Fold:
Amino acid sequence: MERTLLSLGSINADFQVRTHAAPGSTETLLAHNFCRFPGGKAANTAYLGALFGHRSYLFGRVGDDDLAEQALSPLREVGVEVTGVSRAEGQATGVSMIMVPPDGKKQIVLATNANDQWSEAAVDAMQRQIAGISGPACLVVDYEVPAWVVRRAVESARHCDVPVVIDPSFPERVEDDLLGKLLAITPNLAEAEALLGKQLGSLDKVAEAARHFHSLGVRNVCIKLSDGGCVLVSEGQSMHLPAADVDPVDTTGAGDAFTGVLAISLLEGLDILEAASWAVAAANLAVTGYGSQPAYANRHDVKTMAEQRLQRAKRLDV
Structure:
């Protein structure tokens, strides 16, 4: 039976410069390369859904400008269904300004633009599409769109028994009452700290935080670590999946690769430990190329690395 990945969230045009160093205060640096890429968390997730061979629906907003095509054209090319994307009149498409220094640890400034401009009609249309999905499906949402839009999507999915994965970007927008009964949540370390209001200085503290989210009703908690690994807490297990030894050139979109492939793997019926190993592998491979979507690895390469990551998984003390 055909499976469907539903993605709600940001759709952006990415503008990237590569530099020889990170600039200091008031300093002007010469960049040695400039690139334009498609981007946005939901767009990246939808791209992965199609890349992995599934029906992939994207819900979001773009502006009535030429940047919309920069964001959407590559998605259409891989088969993403973009009828759930509408234009916000008089608004610019979301834009990410990305600086990538030699260590690949990007710095991003995001102008949400059309991502934050939703009409009631656009949300109603999204809910109708979610309600019309047949067969196995999973909804992935991020908070680079308004919280009320996320809430409406999650409510529609739950009404149709579609499991939900939340990527809590912009953690200040996250509404705690939506965390119960989630299939998964995938904060990075900084987002987990913001959600909890405290620093997580050790692996044990990260696992403790993950267990807290699990106690709120989240079935599977994956906290993405800054080195590319993750801490997983689910029913009866607390695990650390270490990162692979890769040479990173650009970390843009690696977290989106993690969330997208985690959702895809769960949709395909993998158990959570296997799914997390696939997610870590996808994120690790993503940092070896520039941009987000252009750097995403195919199923075969992700599978090969995932098998290695699974063998390295270690149980954490409860």
Q: What stands out?
A: The mean pLDDT is 96.
